[in-house]
Design goal:
By secondary structure, the protein is of the alpha/beta class. The protein folds into 2 domains: 6-139, Four Helix Bundle (Hemerythrin (Met), subunit A) (Up-down Bundle); 148-360, 3-Layer(aba) Sandwich (Rossmann fold), CATH 3.40.50.10470. The chain is built from 10 helices and 16 strands. β1 (6-9) and β2 form a beta hairpin. The protein binds 5-S-methyl-1-O-phosphono-5-thio-D-ribulose. Residues 50-53, 98, 172, 174, 178-179, 184, 211, 250-252, 262-263, 328 line the site of 5-S-methyl-1-O-phosphono-5-thio-D-ribulose. Its main location: cytoplasm. The record marks 172 as: Transition state stabilizer.
Length: 366
């Protein structure tokens, strides 16, 4: 059975949404119901659900569920449109760095704003629900394409070992738990494995929240992918002493120039990869690319509670009274990135050293 972070049951009258409580993994698999936008906001903020694509889809579907059980959106089409806009704006405040939620909200607003003659509030709501539901299925398809394109690119461009097989290193969690299914960077690892092209996957612990040891390791064991966990501080030693063809990471926001915000620790992995001649690959759907943000210096980085660093659950692991610096993400400059793999294809730098990401959006209004 494949892992599912998001369980959504469509219904014309009462759709339901449940999410896997990622705070309890890997010890317990418990699903919690999401009835309202407030439930989703709280779950995203507390990281019950996390990962850029999963955050966006849970938020979009939470509003779909809320709309089905409330008449609070009013009686006219105009009132319903206003309600959808306000609720999406509220959800967008939950976490600042990943752009996927803002991207989804923007697309959903366009859907409800399309006017039909004599439209009722219910027709506007119906259009919203169908569009939100479509995002769930589309994400899995996009990830499968990212997996295929990324595996092909690595096998064609990285140092490939005997019998066309590679070992790779990944950071944070970008798999089924961070998306609607299959995953982005972990999707590439799944694709390499299913094509018998993977010798080994290494995953970092990903302090302080341990997405790697708790979630990625859980997915790798679940899928029986040959894998080894390392602490974050072992990455340079690993790349020095073992054969690693590529570091593959996800993204929370890729700026127009290719600078990429991702889980804290990504930047240092990119520096280490460059030093050791290891390819550094960013895997992200085009929904993670923010053409309105020129470069990484304009990306807002979320800072989280120092307790994530001083505690493991309720156990104190640091000297009481110490100050803590806890940015949840960092920005990897484009110069350290070899390829950006999207569902539409792989983008590499041109002769001038720039990523031309705009070509991914030709014909698409953003
Ligand atoms: O704080 P998180 O766990 O939401 O951070 C997740 C990451 O940084 C992922 O790499 C990113 O969202 C891509 S998930 C496909």
């Amino acid at each position: 059975m494949s892992l599912q972070a998001i369980l959504y049951t469509p219904s014309t009258t009462r759709p339901t949404l449940q999410i896997l409580d990622q705070l309890k993994l890997p010890h317990e698999s418990v699903y919690v119901p999401i009835h309202t936008c407030e439930d989703a906001y709280d779950a995203i903020k507390r990281m019950v659900v996390r990962g850029a694509p999963a955050i966006a889809i849970v938020a979009a579907l939470a509003l779909a569920v809320e709309l089905s059980s409330a008449s609070s959106y009013g009686e006219t089409a105009e009132a319903a449109r206003k309600y959808v806009h306000e609720r999406l704006d509220y959800l967008m405040q939950s976490r600042p760095t990943a752009v996927n939620l803002a991207d989804a909200a923007g697309k959903l607003k366009v859907v409800v704003d399309a006017e039909a003659e004599d439209e009722s509030a219910e027709m506007v709501v119906g259009r919203y629900v169908r569009a939100a539901e479509k995002m769930l299925g589309d994400d899995v398809k996009d990830n499968e394409n990212i997996g295929r394109f990324g595996a092909e690119w690595i096998l064609g461009n990285a140092k490939v070992g005997e019998e066309g097989r590679v070992a790779v290193l990944t950071h944070c969690n970008t798999g089924s738990l961070a998306t609607a299914g299959y995953g982005t960077a972990l999707g590439i690892i799944r694709s390499l494995h299913s094509g018998s092209n993977l010798t080994h996957a290494y995953c970092t612990e990903t302090r302080p929240y341990n997405q790697g040891s708790r979630l990625t390791a859980y997915e790798l064991v679940h899928d029986k992918i040959p894998a080894t966990l390392i602490t974050d501080s072992m990455a340079s030693s690993l790349m020095n002493l073992k054969s690693v063809a590529a570091v593959i990471v996800g993204a929370d926001r890729v700026a127009a120039n290719g600078d990429t915000a991702n889980k804290i620790g990504t930047y240092q992995l990119a520096i280490v990869a460059k030093y050791h001649g290891v390819k550094f690959v960013v895997a992200a759907p085009t929904a993670s690319i923010d053409m309105k943000t020129a470069s990484g210096k304009d990306i807002v980085i979320e800072h989280r509670s120092g307790k994530e660093v001083t505690h493991v659950e309720t156990v104190v692991t640091a000297a009481r009274g110490i100050n803590v610096y806890n940015p949840s993400f960092d920005v990897t400059p484009k110069d350290l990135i070899d390829a950006i793999v999207t569902e539409k294809g792989v983008v590499v730098k041109n002769a001038g050293g720039d990523f031309d990401l705009s070509r991914l959006f030709w014909g698409v209004q953003r």
